[in-house]
Amino acid sequence: MDIKLIAILRGVRPEEAADHVAALIDAGLRYIEIPLNSPGWQQSIPQMIRQYGQQATIGAGTVLNIEQVDWLAKVGARLIVTPNTQPAVIRRALEHDMLVCAGCATASEAFTALEAGAQCLKIFPSAAFGPAYISALKAVLPPEVSVLAVGGVTPDNIVDYLQAGCCGAGLGSDLYRAGQSVQQTAAQARRFIAACG
């Protein structure tokens, strides 16, 4: 199985982003999002795309409207992660040939996202639902749909989500917390990679 792990650098500052992104890539992560509620994201995202866009799929999380999508497309972002199911945002990102991971929690939201064209579903917050819920949800989704667990995924429980049918996960505060050292980011990234091995 091709396991997709999206590193979420929520709260990373422009002056430290490069070191953390380099550490993630060195550890083997190939999908990286900087949420739009991070300080200075307008600097961080274009800078990371210029420096590391050939080595990883870099984009933005917490994308809420089409204006943000258009801005991100101009700077070369290739990944859009939303916290909610917003068909207009999904469709606009697809027009820009971006990979869209749409946030959803229920079957209704999941099918709304799929009908809008989302290539990937982000079940959030996964820890509140648990692997059994995701397994049940997967039972009604088309088998080819990619589902990621996001929210509360740790190196200790990620295998449970993979066994429930997820193709990967979004790695949040158990990978990166604002202000932590690059060494901590690298160590946590290696723990996640090892857990999936």
Task: Give an account of the 3D structure.
- This protein has helices at about 15-25, 40-50, 65-75, 85-95, 105-115, 125-130, 130-140, 160-165, 180-195; strands at about 5-10, 30-35, 55-60, 80, 100-105, 120-125, 145-150, 170.
- It has an eight-stranded parallel barrel.
- With about 200 residues, the chain is an alpha/beta fold.
- Helix 1 (about 15-25) runs parallel beside helix 2 (about 40-50).
- It has a single domain, classed as Alpha-Beta Barrel (TIM Barrel).
- The protein is about 45% helix and about 20% strand.
* Alpha carbon gyration radius: 16 Å
Total domains, how many?
Answer: 1
Strand order of the largest sheet: 1-2-3-4-5-6-7-8
Strand content is 15-25%
Structural class of the secondary structure composition?
Answer: alpha/beta
CATH hierarchy, class: Alpha Beta
Residue stretches low in confidence (pLDDT < 50, at least 5 long) are none
CATH topology: TIM Barrel
Q: Overall 3D geometry?
A: globular
CATH architecture identity: Alpha-Beta Barrel
Taking the alpha carbons of the first and last residues, their distance comes to 11 Å
Task: Quickly count the helices.
Answer: 9
CATH homologous superfamily annotation:
Aldolase class I
Helix content: 40-55%
Q: How do the SSEs run, as a string of H and E?
A: EHEHEHEHEHEHHEHEH
* Biggest sheet layout: 8 strands, parallel, barrel
